[in-house]
Amino acid sequence: MNNLVMNFLVTEGFADAAEKFRNESGTELEMDLATIADRMAVKQAILDTNPQLFFHLQQQRLIELIRNEKIVEALEFAQQELVPRVEENQSFLEDLERTVALLAFEDPYNCPVGELLNTSQRLKTASEVNAAILTSQSHDKDSKLPRFLKMLILSQNQLDEKAVYPRINDLSKATLEDPAT
User: Which residues does the UniProt record annotate as the domain CTLH (predicted)?
Assistant: First the structure.
């Protein structure tokens, strides 16, 4: 019974209560309490502050149900979880319609919205989650490298009009090339 109570406290993110319960009951923790705070920060970043991301996570869950051919479960999930979100925010309607349209085709992989079943859709959702986590931790959500590369290209293009200089022509090698050669 103590293990069940501890599991509830840890799963639901009650780190302080889990620590006190551990001290009083002698029940061992299955995970580090520090991870609870991390999970709760992620949960807040996703659920409390970003309804669009939460919708996209739920949409991805619906896509996975459709991918696994759990049609009845997919319809119930869409009705219970996604329709109320659309009622709150009409901007989600098009995404929901596109996703539910997968159910209308015998071969959803080869239909007009079949790209939703591609790995790229999963990666898109994962990137959105990653960006929310980074933002919640006060980090940049985008890598600086692409920005610096664009600045380098722009700077070189502007400098080309004014001077001859060693430049980087192949960004993958990042070697300076002598303009005389």
Answer: 46-73
Phi and psi angles of residue 54, each rounded to the nearest 5 degrees, phi first: -60, -40
Listed by start position, the domains of the chain span 2-48, 51-136, 144-177
Helix or strand holding residue 154 (H, E): helix 144-160
Q: Please write the tens of the pLDDT for every residue from 73-83.
A: 999 999 999 99
Question: Is a pLDDT exceeding 90 seen at residue 40?
Answer: no
Measured between alpha carbons, how far is 14 from 11 in angstroms, rounded to an integer? 8
Amino acid type, 138 = S
Q: How far apart are CA 92 and CA 45, in angstroms?
A: 19
Measured between alpha carbons, how far is residue 130 from residues 51, 64, 68, 76 in Å?
15, 19, 25, 28
Whole-number pLDDT of residue 114: 96
Indicate if the pLDDT at residue 26 is higher than 80. yes
- The per-residue b/e assignment along 150-181, b for 16 or more CB within 10 angstroms, e otherwise, is eeeeeeeeeeeeeeeeeeeeeeeeeeeeeeee
> C-alpha distances in angstroms, 5 versus 12, 38, 58, 78, 171?
11, 21, 28, 32, 56
Average pLDDT over the chain, rounded to an integer: 88
